[in-house]
Amino acid sequence: MTAQSTTLKPITGSNYELGLKGELLDGRVNTSFALFRVEQENRAQVTNNPACNNDCYVAGGKVRAQGFDAEVSGEVLAGLQLFAGYTYTTTEYLNDPNDDVSTAGSTFNSYTPRHLLRFWADYNLPGRLEQWTVGGGANIQSGNYHTNFGGTDGVGDIEQAGYAVWNARLAYRIDKHFSVALNGNNLFDKKYYSTIGWLHAANHYGDPRNYTVTLRADF
User: Fold this and answer.
1) What CATH number should be reported for the domain whose range is 12-217?
2) What is the 3-state secondary structure (H, E, C) of 65-126?
3) What is the pLDDT of residues 175-194, one digit of tens each?
């Protein structure tokens, strides 16, 4: 609701994407590259209004998110399956009717990381060890934050630096129908926020180090 207890305008916007896809190594490896842009108007935006205890909103002008995404996946070497992806994203206010909160050109979505890198590799061991597969990878991102109202100086931020979460997998093919796998997630027990919210709510830690065993059947 607004400070006048009226409803906000609905969000409107547009999405644009331009991409290319290709193949390498006689079709064993797939590649893709995409440019994207998302524009929205009338996003709900909290207003620093003491009259309503910082719990009022305005239609947040016009915002834009844009960037690119690149991926490569496939069998890059005999027995080695690889996936790698990188996403670059920037966000900004194009205009803002509530200039006491932010100004045009500033970041509107600071909890979306600007840089995000993901990669994973699986290797099927050769020879007598051909029933074994080992794998590993990581999700790596740059720092992010969320600006909040209500701190001692009127604004408080929840911030975290860039981080990496590493995972691994060991699998054994019992026969042509059954396989078993051990997955290790967040191997270095990194403490991080999977979501960033307000000063006193909606801040959630990512899962600590954990392991799972999976039995799979294919017929």
Assistant:
1) 2.40.170.20
2) EEEEEEEEEEEEECCEEEEEEEEEEEEEEEECCCCCCCCCCCCCCCCCCCEEEEEEEEEECC
3) 989 999 999 999 999 999 88
